[in-house]
Amino acid sequence: MKNRYDAIIIGAGPAGLACSTELADKGLEVAVLDEQAAPGGQIYRNISKTSARQRAILGPDYTAGLELIRAFTEATVDYLPQTRVWQAEAAGEVFFSHDNRSGRFQAPFLALNTGAMERPVPFPGWTLPGVMTCGGMSNLYKDSTLVPREPVVLAGSGPLLWLVAEHLLALEAPIAAILDTTPLKQMLTAMPELPAALRRAGYLFKGVKMIAAVQLAARKAKVPMYRQVSGLRAEGDGRVERVKASCRGRELSFEASTLLVHEGIIPNTALLRQVGCRHSWNPVQRYWHPQVDASGKTSLGSVYVAGDGTFVHGAKAAELKGRLTGLTIARELRRLTEPDYRRQAAEVQAELQEELLPRPYIDALYAPRKDLFTISDETTVCRCEGVTAGRIRELVEQGYTDHNEIKSIIRCGMGPCQGRMCGSAVMELVAEGSGRSPEETRQMRLRPPIKPVSLQELANATLGEPDES
Amino acid sequence: MNRGNSTFTRSEPLSGDDTITIFFEETACEVPAGVTVAAALLGHDDHHFCRSAADQEKRAPHCLMGVCFECLVEIDGVKNRQACLEPVREGMQVKRQHEPVDESK
Ligand code: FES
Questions:
Q1: For ligand 1, which residues put their CB under 6 angstroms from it?
Q2: β-strand B19-24 against B27-32: which pairing, if any?
């Protein structure tokens, strides 16, 4: 296999697919590396194999991906599915494991389209088997048509909570309750952003209508729904048996064997932090995101990021951002003249701007609520190493405000997930204890390998292979 | 196959030729072809996939998208495999992982 390309694209979600298709179109040699077995990312997961019924349940927002997949399948790219990238270097190198071997590719341009993940929020019992994310449930259904057959509780805030509820209701899964944790007052704080959002009223109303329809269906199916829920916890012996919460002073308790949680979506920046591009802090959505220009170019120049990895804007925007990045890299590689680039990029940009109009409103409405990270001392924050909030608070009280230091003292963030699951919470605990905004503290670093790589894979390296290009 | 332990069910029937056999803790299980190891196991016995290194607590898939590392299993003798990313293959040997092993360090 070749190991030198014009560009290496990481991730085969909407951004990666659009970006690589654009580059291949311009006659450039591209490698696409993705963790999953099939293209589509999380949103269009398994789309080429899902049944007619699955597609009907998942709806047009899912089948919208078919066209993207078709174009990608027809494009001439070296596509490596089931590939774990464990290191990227700004000089244009990517190290990965694929099929029990490790490899290294080189290219003058990298596009790291690592997408997004659900915001991990610790609460008592969140490590119990049976506690999953709403997105995880959706993935499970897309992969295998599995649905809960025993009582399931959905809890959290954001459109995905209602979307998954919609699917589960249509599939007649036994929903024990839907607990919406969005504070009422965020409706008010989001108000100033509404006029811009209304310039794309169609989009906004589609969301509002979806949620209203789910609530109607839930009422018909006699599924209890609660608003302004707080104090979520899961209990059970070795797995979830009960879900408890409070709702405006009232204590709730449900027998359930699955709890699906969702507290918003954040960029998945693990690889971006490892490669070392500069990030900014967003105080509304409270997450770090890479600093990129309109084309997705990071502070590292030859490293680009497109899609939800730059900022969470949804699947359609991710596709458009991927396209822009593709066009820009093609221009840098002189496969596109300046006037052609300007014309094509302007079209995509106009569409993207339209797509982004409602986002500030949605971001404010579903911003992480004030008490989201009010974590009790006994609650496990770092799942891998079993570190509690109390232990982290102790260190913050002693003056430690850097996750990198906290990690080296109590191993918080040192396990296999490398802080992907505890990062947001540690940052908030530091902010709470020190009174400093996360902006003033250092971001958590990731050292390679950022994915487990076995000795065998390293031994089976193809690094030394003669350069075939 | 014993499905008594699973809290999930397939919402669409599977025809006979679409299944393959994998081994979970040395027991043969018939599972749908083409699904991930995580989906295969969750449809079969979702009690737990691994134990946490720090306190030996039972853990099972949480994110199903490759970020939480709570689905680590041993596949054909290789540890630290993320079950939510790995598709099933005929004859695959899957075992619970009782503690994450960091082979790289
Ligand atoms: S379930 Fe989270 S990494 Fe596999």
A1: B 38, 61-64, 66-71, 82, 84
A2: antiparallel
